[in-house]
Structure formats: structure tokens, C-alpha cells
Amino acid sequence: MTIAFIIVILAIAGSIVFFSIKPKKKRRTDSIYTDALNAMIRNDRKTALSLLRDVVRHDSNHVDAYLQLGNILRETHPQQALKIHQSLTVRPNLSKTMKIDIHQALALDYQLLGRLPLAKRETEQILKIERRNLIATEFLLSIAVSERNWTEASTYAKVVQRITNTQDKQQLAQFQVYEGMDKLEQGDRNGARSSFKKALKIAPDFGEPNRHLGDLLEDERDLVKAIEHWEKYATLSPNGAKGVFNKIETALFDLGRFGEVENFYRRILEKDPANLEALSKLANVMEEKGDRQTGLELVDNALARNESSLHIRLMKLKLSLTLKPPHELAHQIDTLRTLIAEIEKEH
To answer: Do 23-130 and 207-272 share a fold?
Structure first.
């Protein structure tokens, strides 16, 4: 038997042993890794950590296991998680998907450690690999918002909208409003005005810029234009409208146009009949004009739509004091007491 023949026999035998043992080892680590993932899904952190450590002990090339191990450790040991994830960046032959996952993990590590510039750097690496990566773009958007960098926020928001094939002009306008508010705090009134006007140009039906422009114009004593913007705000943002009602009343009074207050509230109610604050204000105006009956009719119409409203019932009681007999007033008070008791019981 020649030496060459012996070498061939040994090589064949070695191959048989290698291929009979390695698959079993791989099957074992893959099974443990699957169990670890299931534990993560169950939020069983302790079991998942134990299983993942078992995987990497048996297979130091199991990059996925190292990645998940770091992700779990991030919550309690972010610095340790960072070291694990950093060690993965030098591994050879990483797939495109794995590179993205590693950079994403590092970004989250740095974010938790308060190192936002490095978190941004890692996320930007993802976009170099995959330009239209939604998770990375949304992450950069969130960082821009946290840093109050409204120019970057607007840029990333546009990219997110392109990726998701959506259009949200109000979101872009809101960033302009935030920028204007920051400029206002810094004393840059002209810059703030420019930002608010840009917001209106982006989303003409967005109410908030109108409120801020109205406030700016009020400070400059241009009350006529201030009222125009406030009314637009009240119309476009019914939930916040009550915040400008007193401003409008005061401005109209200063201009000698207090008689227009009634028409203003009627316009608001035409567009938003359920606006109880506008209704209350209009009823007060009618009372001041001596027309309590009209005010009472308005309140009754509102009660027909919302019988359980304490606000409306109190307004009705106020307007009824000089118009209704004592027994009816007493009945209204009893109804109010019942409603209050029901509210207290709920809480």
C-alpha cells in the first residue's frame, strides 16, 4: 500500500467524519437559536439570553445569535451591547441584510447611550447600503425632531412620504410652524413670520399658522389682519378655537366693532354647530344685548343634540333666571345635580 493511497483513504475518512459531525452541530445550534427567538417573542428575556449564549459558545460564527444577544442586553447593559455589535462589523462575508441589521442595532445602542451624532452616522450607513430604507429614514426623522432641526425633519419627512407613497402636507407645515416658534423665542420676528407664511403656503387648510400670525399682528397693533387670521384658525381648528375667542372679542371692541361679535359666532356655528364654546359665547352676547330669549333658544337647540352637557345646562339656567318661574328653575337644578352625581359615580 503506497503512501499516496493511504493519504487518499485518510482524506476520504476525514471528509466522512466532518460531514457527519458538522451538520449535527449546526442542527443543534439552529434548534437552540430557534428556541431563543421563541423566548424573545414570549418576552422571556432570561431564557433567551441563556439560549443565545449557548449558541455562541457552540458556534462563534453565528452572527445572528450575537446580534440578538446584543439587542437583548441593550436594555440593561447598553455599553456591553455596543461592544458586541461593534465586533460584528469586522466579520467577513456579511450579507447586505445583515450589514443593515448591525448598523441599525448600533444606532439604537448609541441612541440609548445619548450619543446621537454616532446614532445618525450608523443610520446614514444604512442609507448608503439601501437608499430607500424606511426604518432608517424614520429613525433619522425622529432624531431631527428631538434635536429641533426642522429643516432636516422636513427633508426626512418628505423621503418617508415618498417611500410610503403618502402625502401629508400638514406634517411638513407643522415643521415650519415649529421653526417659526423657535425663531420667535430667539427674538427673530421676521424669521418667524416667514416660517408661518411658508407653513400656510404648504398647507393652506392648516389652522395653526393663522393663530401665530394673528398673535404677531396683534403685537404690532394690526388688529384688522389679526382678526382675519384668528377667524381662519377658529374655522380650521374647531378644537382649539376657544383659545382665540376672547382675543377676537377684545380686538373688535378696541376697533369699535363689538357689534360684529354676534355675526362672528354665528359664522363659527354655521360651520361647526357642535361648538359649545361658540354657542356659550353667542348666548352671552345675546344676553348682553338684552335678548335672553334668543340666547335661550340657542341653548335649547344645543341641548337637543347633547342632553348630558353640564356646560349647556348651566348656560340655560343662567339665561332662565329672569325668564322662567321658580319651579322650572328648581327642576333645572335637580337635573344638574343628577348629572353631577352620575359623573362623580363614574370617577
So the answer is: yes
**238: exposed, middle or buried (Cβ count in 10 Å: 0-12, 13-18, 19+):** middle
Domain boundaries, the chain: 23-130, 207-272, 291-347
pLDDT over 90 percentage in the chain:
58
CB neighbour list of residue 258: distance below 8 Å, 6 or more residues apart:
249, 252
DSSP 184-198: HHTT-HHHHHHHHHH
Determine whether 182 is exposed, middle or buried from the number of CB atoms within 10 Å of its CB (0-12, 13-18, 19+): middle
Mean pLDDT in residue range 206-232: 96
For 71-80, the pLDDT digits (tens) are 999 999 999 9
For the chain, the residue count is 347
Cα separation, 208 vs 198, whole angstroms: 12
Whole-prediction pTM: 0.76
Q: Tell me, which fold does domain 207-272 have in CATH? A: 1.25.40
Close Cβ partners of 212 (under 8 Å, ≥ 6 residues apart): 177, 180, 181, 184, 192, 196
- Cβ of 107: how many Cβ atoms within 10 Å? 26
Q: CATH code for 23-130?
A: 1.25.40.10
What radius of gyration, in Å, describes the C-alpha atoms of the chain? 34
Q: Is the dihedral of CA 152, 132, 95, 31 positive or negative?
A: positive
Compute CA distances 161 → 57, 134, 142, 199, 250, whole Å: 44, 10, 14, 17, 42
What are the residues whose beta carbons fall under 8 Å from the beta carbon of 207, sequence distance 6 or more?
A: 232, 233, 234, 235, 236, 237, 240
Strand ranges for the chain from DSSP E = none
18: confidence class by pLDDT, cuts 50, 70, 90 = very low
Which DSSP state fits 74?
T
